[in-house]
């Protein structure tokens, strides 16, 4: 049992809630840093209310803290969010918190970044941490800028770059895919052959624990991805298996679906369906990170749990 005190941001969000459960199960004490007064999440040992854009009470919040896990931030949207908003939430707040953590002499700062700090929505080859970072949108640029800011602060830091995360309570693209799988109708998606890496929120929590426990200093970014990328038909089949359904997939030329998406104003969604994004978590694996389930198994369990 660790007994170390972890300061956790974003504890009321999708990933943060799972991190709180995972960290306490591993024996850490968790102090949650909240933006506004709300009920303290179950499992937290203490809570501090503050604003990371004006971190006046962060010295008290980080007193006695061994490490920080920063999962709060502005999540990726398909389009329309101003770049300044991403920079304020994902760069400025991260830098402010890290500077406070450095003054408090915390042992390590773990930042939940994103694969979008490294790539656009698709990539020709397999993404690795050693590849040059080439974000293509405001969200990805803000995450990469936060990583670069951490590198300029005197503390031991880790940035985790997860691919698309799935698990109980997920929203956005993964929730939409599950809703699609839940329909009783055949789906015209059998013709999509692009492969994409995913990671369950449980395996992501394991990556955070690996980053906290690894010998240091680290001072680098790590890709977080399960080792078995799937095609869109594979994902639907796995979800429907968890729901007790047959795959029920039929082949329609992807170009026709692309035309329909463009007419409906969903070009970005189609780009995600039709392009590869495969990543390898070589650095984390070298540190001892292991996935408990394959992606197929994890998707089936996720769908079954959501249905229940």
UniProtKB/TrEMBL annotation:
> InterPro entries from the entry?
Epimerase_deHydtase (IPR001509), NAD(P)-bd_dom_sf (IPR036291), NAD(P)-dependent_oxidoreduct (IPR051783)
Domain of life where this protein originates: Bacteria
Q: Which GO terms describe its cellular component?
A: cytoplasm
Domain (NAD-dependent epimerase/dehydratase): residue spans on this chain: 6-224
A molecular function (GO) held by this record is: aldehyde dehydrogenase (NAD+) activity
Q: Which PANTHER family match?
A: NAD(P)-BINDING DOMAIN-CONTAINING PROTEIN-RELATED (PTHR48079:SF6), PROTEIN YEEZ (PTHR48079)
Q: What is this protein called?
A: UDP-glucose 4-epimerase
């Amino acid at each position: 049992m660790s007994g170390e005190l972890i300061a956790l941001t974003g504890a009321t969000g999708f990933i943060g809630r799972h991190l709180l459960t995972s960290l306490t199960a591993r024996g850490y004490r968790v102090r949650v840093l909240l933006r506004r007064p709300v009920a303290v999440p179950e499992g937290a040992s203490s809570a501090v209310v503050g604003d990371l854009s004006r971190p006046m009470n962060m010295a008290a919040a980080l007193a006695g803290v061994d490490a920080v896990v920063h999962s709060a931030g502005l999540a990726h949207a398909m389009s329309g969010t101003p770049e300044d908003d991403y920079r304020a939430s994902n760069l400025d707040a991260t830098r402010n918190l890290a500077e406070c953590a450095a003054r408090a002499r915390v042992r390590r700062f773990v930042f939940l970044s994103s694969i979008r700090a490294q790539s656009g929505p698709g990539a020709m080859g397999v993404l690795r941490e050693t590849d040059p970072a080439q974000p293509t949108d405001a969200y990805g640029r803000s995450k990469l800028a936060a990583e670069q800011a951490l590198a300029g602060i005197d503390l031991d830091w880790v940035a985790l770059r997860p691919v698309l995360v799935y698990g109980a309570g997920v929203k956005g693209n993964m929730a939409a895919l599950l809703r699609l799988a839940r329909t009783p109708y055949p789906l015209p998606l059998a013709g999509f052959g692009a492969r994409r890496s995913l990671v369950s929120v449980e395996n992501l929590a394991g990556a955070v624990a690996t980053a906290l426990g690894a010998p240091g200093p680290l001072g680098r970014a790590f890709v977080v991805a399960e080792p078995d990328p799937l095609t869109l038909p594979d994902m639907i089949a796995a979800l429907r298996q968890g729901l007790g359904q047959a795959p029920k997939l039929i082949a329609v030329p992807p170009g026709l679906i692309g035309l329909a998406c463009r007419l409906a104003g969903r070009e970005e969604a189609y780009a995600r369906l039709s392009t590869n994004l495969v990543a390898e978590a070589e650095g984390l694996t070298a540190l001892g990170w292991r996935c408990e389930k394959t992606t197929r198994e994890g998707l089936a369990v996720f769908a079954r749990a959501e249905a229940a």
